Amino acid sequence: xxxxxxxxxxxxxxxxxxxxxxxxxxxxxxxxxxxxxxxxxxxxxxxxxxxxxxxxxxxxxxxxxxxxxxxxxxxxxxxxxxxxxxxxxxxxxxxxxxxxxxxxxxxxxxxxxxxxxxxxxxxxxxxxxxxxxxxxxxxxxxxxxxxxxxxxxxxxxxxxxxxxxxxxxxxxxxxxxxxxxxxxxxxxxxxxxxxxxxxxxxxxxxxxxxxxxxxxxxxxxxxxxxxxxxxxxxxxxxxxxxxxxxxxxxxxxxxxxxxxxxxxxxxxxxxxxxxxxxxxxxxxxxxxxxxxxxxxxxxxxxxxxxxxxxxxxxxxxxxxxxxxxxxxxxxxxxxxxxxxxxxxxxxxxxxxxxxxxxxxxxxxxxxxxxxxxxxxxxxxxx
Length: 382
What we know:
Pfam families: Spore_permease. InterPro entries: Spore_GerAB. The protein is 69% helix and 1% strand. It is mainly alpha-helical. It has one domain: Amino acid/polyamine transporter I (Up-down Bundle), CATH 1.20.1740.10. The chain has a two-stranded antiparallel sheet with strand order 1-2. Strand 1 and strand 2 (265-266) form a beta hairpin. The longest helix has 33 residues, at 80-112. The chain is globular. Mean pLDDT is 83; it is low at 370-382.
């Protein structure tokens, strides 16, 4: 294996929380509100089925091909040349995805705080810090997640608690005025965030052998935590802004500016930024790590570390090219990019799993922590 580090199923689940939530809580309320209106809180609940399904598919594929990731076993499932081509397509899709994530980070930091700082300074500095973490290996990324995720979640819910006096629950009513259709429409762009659980097809092989039986359990719990975080964020945005939620690019940041406690504790934008930067560091680092592992496996390299800084430089450049401005980037997240993510992060692994099931229909899937007992050889006849 390219990286000899090992993590637990619990660490894997913790890593995936900011990988999904970090950008979702910033942009999702606005995106979902455009389709679901006041029923936007229901969209993450409906869409979480996608996350659970991807977790199931990722785990089952690993059961069929223990110790391998998607780049490796795709060649066994659909043969060598189509598998190589699919791996190349997925690598390019991750370049695009990484560029979008870094661009979202840069647009938010510049728009909310450092509006006179060049975009390249903001994006290249974060990519460089993430590159140092990626070069350190999967174990360092997991430990960073264990440290930063609880701190970030505490900061977020502290801000939400301070916003309670400004809540207007009447913004939620009437619920389901137009039936379930608006919530289902809002669930379509929402599921693109859940589709990021496809990172598991690369990360699962790094789970320690004795802990692989817990992957489904902890990954499913991770999906449910992500779902609850999205629901709470959407409700907070709805209670604060009502119908204006769809018009705000960053409803959570707008909410942080609402905080006013006894004319003493006010304007907690900096606290919100601290929470978000911690989450984005984990998200960028994890997706960055997945990308370099995919490239190294596709090229059949013995070590991924020589690729890290080169790939990081290309990611930072690509973040400038993915969209001309923040408005078009946000429009893409709720339109064309939805089909991009659904195709490559949901349909492709589902088709691979279906083909793997057909090819292995006579073989019972092996538990990742188990080893097959070798069949006894028949005695040779003289």
